[in-house]
Amino acid sequence: MSPRQSALTIGVLIILSAAVVFVGLLLGTRPMSAATAIRELLHPDGKIDSIFVWTLRLPRSLTAAASGAGLAVSGYILQTLTRNPLADPGITGVTAGAVAPIVCCLVFAPFISPALYPFVGLVGGLSAAAVTFWVSRGGQARPLQLALGGISVSLFLGAITTYVLLLTGPQSASLLFWLTGGFQGRTWSHLFYMLPWCFVGLAGALILRRVIGMLMLSDHAAAAMGLQLSVWKPLLLVLAVIPVAGVAPIAGPVAFVGLASPHIARLLKPQTVGLQIGLSAALGAFIVTIADVIGRSAALPRELPVGIITALIGGPIFIYLVQKGRLDLAGGQ
Q1: Taking CA 78 as the corner, what is the angle to CA 10 and CA 92, rounded to the nearest 5 degrees?
Q2: pLDDT exceeds 50 at position 228
Q3: Would you say residue 325 has pLDDT above 70?
Q4: Which of 20-24, 114-118, 131-135, 185-189: highest mean pLDDT?
Q5: Is 112 helix (H, G, I), strand (E, B) or coil?
Q6: What is the CA radius of gyration of the chain?
């Protein structure tokens, strides 16, 4: 795919995501016509329809899009950093590492400001990733070893999270919904709270695209080209965890986006690392936005957690990639 075609594909995905966001304005317990939604977008009047558009539905969908983009970039960096096609925030234990300490803070230290939760998640995610990479020999072992190491770390941290939930009593229902991934009740403040973390991950990946490109070869090749692995690999690990740390306090764990989006982007065979990153982010935003709209409209008046929908979408894609032998870091080349 030429750079022009890749840029056009990214633009199409952004337009499709915007279209899904608009469709999301129309769906819910109070359906809305397209004409009404457009009128309220252009000329909000503060009445009930305007509140549904500007307070309840639009910020929620934009938060979903930003979350998807951030998680996709995180997955791309982790897969490149380890040169392992199974790496993603969930399988490497990063998500569980970010979620478990946040749950502990919610239950045992409610006096801690929610503004600090991303930093708590960052420390937890980095710690979990470090343990996973240590188990899998720095991420250089076979994909199966990385997966088993990450799953072991995730199960351990998941057991701690479950035990803490058993101690919460009335809080457990809302925490359980959050742990399945979702954007119910998310507002502009949640979006602005999370957006810088996702932006840092995306912008950092684009700025360091040459470093990422060299790491896609091998450690020996990257070192021969003058790359200081002892500096750049830890820095990229931090960069990969940053979006997860921002998304986890808002949406909880959202499955499969960080795993599937980079692989789909590589299947399109863009020519540069920067375009691969852009395609991954656009695909992640598109997938999570669709999942959020489906989750809040498929079982009205109830909602389905977004994490369940993304797993239902990402699972078949992952199985297809495995069956076709395309689960690699070169887009099947």
Answers
A1: 125
A2: yes
A3: no
A4: 20-24
A5: coil
A6: 20
> Which of 41, 68, 67 lies closest to 52, judged by CA?
41
How close are the terminal C-alpha atoms of the chain, in Å?
13
The residue whose two tokens read 């309840």 is 56
| pLDDT band of 246, cuts 50, 70, 90 | very high
327 pLDDT higher than 70: no
Minimal CA–CA distance to 154: which of 197, 124, 184, 182?
124
Query: Which DSSP symbol is given to 332?
Result: T
pLDDT above 70: percentage of residues in the chain: 93
Residue 89 near residue 95 (C-beta atoms within 8 A): yes
Report residue 333's pLDDT band, with 50, 70 and 90 as the boundaries: very low
| Percentages (nearest 5) of helix, strand, coil residues in the chain | 75, 0, 25
DSSP 153-169: HHHHHHHHHHHHHHTTG
Judge contact between 152 and 135, C-beta under 8 A: yes
Of 269, 318, 280, the closest CA to residue 201 belongs to: 280
How many other CB atoms are there within 10 angstroms of residue 191's CB atom? 22
- Cβ atoms of 88 and 78 closer than 8 Å: yes
Cβ partners under 8 Å of residue 180, min gap 6 = 252, 253, 305, 306, 307, 308
Place of tokens 């929908």: 309
From the centroid of its chain, how far is CA 48? 32
Position 139 confidence tier, pLDDT thresholds 50, 70, 90: low
- Tally Cβ neighbours within 10 Å of residue 331: 17
d(CA 299, CA 292): 12
Residues of the chain with pLDDT > 90, as a percent, come to 53
d(CA 259, CA 253): 13
Give dist(CA 181, CA 196) in Å, integer.
Answer: 20
